[in-house]
Specification:
mainly alpha; 61% helix
Length: 149
């Protein structure tokens, strides 16, 4: 699995409890594109200088995509880094989850599993096609957080 997807997983696991139907549907409907990936990578690169300062080891769980985007919006350097790359904070969150979902589904298929219900095969194909590019993005520094949080 790519380093970027592992990073997304590490950042997203504390927030995955939202699982609201409308949010899951939005993630399932989201279409990963080359332009979106370029903007997403640009956002990560713009976030890199601030990564240790904008993350928190003890972040509270967000209950929805909207809550996650609102949390980012409350951190001016994070919001401006993402919007300067051409994404809204909401699209950044949705893209993150869609990319994570596609990466996990690609891994599952490689292990002989089936495509999970609702997961876009096109997004899985996109992930596979762009795996080298995704793997080439170094993870963001999480500051002083250790594995125990």
């Amino acid at each position: 699995m790519s380093k970027l997807v592992v990073l997304i997983l590490a950042l997203a696991l504390p927030m995955l409890s939202f699982a609201e139907d409308k949010d899951a549907q939005e993630i399932n409907r989201y279409v990963l594109t080359d332009a979106g990936l370029s903007r997403y990578i640009a956002a990560i690169e713009r976030l890199r200088p601030y990564a240790g300062k904008i993350t928190s080891c003890d972040d509270t769980q967000a209950s929805s995509i909207g809550a996650m985007a609102a949390r980012i919006d409350r951190i001016p350097t994070a919001k401006s880094a993402i919007t300067a790359a051409g994404l809204t904070t909401r699209e950044y969150v949705v893209f993150s989850f869609a990319m994570f979902q596609a990466g996990m589904a690609a891994w599952s298929l490689e292990q002989g599993g089936a495509l999970p219900p609702g997961v876009s095969k096109a997004n899985v194909d996109f992930y596979r096609k762009n795996r080298a590019k995704i793997d080439g993005v170094p993870p963001l520094d999480d500051g002083d957080c250790d594995e125990t949080g």
